[in-house]
Specification:
Elements (H helix, E strand, L loop, with lengths): L1 E5 L2 H18 L4 E4 L6 H12 L9 E4 L1 E3 L10 H13 L6 E2 L8 H14 L5 E4 L21 E4 L2 H7 L13 E4 L2 H4 L4 E6 L5 H9 L17 E6 L9 H9 L8
Parallel strand pairs: 1-10, 2-3, 2-6, 3-5, 6-9, 9-10
Antiparallel strand pairs: 4-8, 7-8
Helix pairs in contact: 1-2, 2-3
The protein binds fructose -6-phosphate (F6R).
Amino acid sequence: MEVVIVPDAKAGGELIAEAMAELLRRKPEAVLGVATGSTPLPVYQALAARVQAGDVDTSRARVAQLDEYVGLPAEHPESYRSVLRREVLEPLGIPAGSFLGPDGTAADISAACEAYEADLAQVGGVDLQLLGIGTDGHIGFNEPCSSLASRTRIKTLTEQTRVDNARFFDGDIDQVPQHVITQGIGTILEARHLVLLATGEGKAEAVAQTVEGPVSAFVPASALQLHRHATVVVDEPAASKLKLADYFRHTYAAKPRWQGL
Ligand code: F6R
């Protein structure tokens, strides 16, 4: 995997937005896999700026959701469908009809998970999957000890993740749903390019284990080591526990720019 250390979150956002823009110039109907949470926001803002400047056309792009809370009405402001409409679809000018996501309100959740896998297959899979990382190493909502072969399914959030996410629910953990639908690790690994962004010191331990630790279901993000095109973009605080930080800086500085991410 490639590790790129950037000065701050804004620089990380610019770098990944440029990789997405480059993909869309090459393949206007590309499927962008998107994460929610705080970390990816600078990416979406930087991509929106490119769209507004006419640098890239997103009108034919498709957007695929990574995960969703179970039981939150779709119109709830914190359902990930609502968040992505606000933060991604509207600013990027992508029509609602180009959005793919699991139905977290379905009466039959297992059927909704299978339907989402079928939808992803039908569009030919995800071209570039943007990921954040939990303080416990989760990707999507694959919490520690999720099978590395898992597919889209229901998961129970850990207490730590619910504490972390309470900030989106007036600081009240009781409002954070217990369950989510998440693409499985096996599903995520099928995307053609995985780009994980991590910012802030709180992610440093999870990043070090992901990049330099063993591949282990205990640290779900370590599954990125199995992917042939995985890029980990980290700011300095998130890189602070990497033993090979200098090596990563050196190799990225020497990388031919035409290669992109
Ligand atoms: C949400 C998701 C999660 C988050 C992770 C980090 O769609 O995929 O894995 O990326 O919980 O969240 P933030 O970025 O808020 O720290």
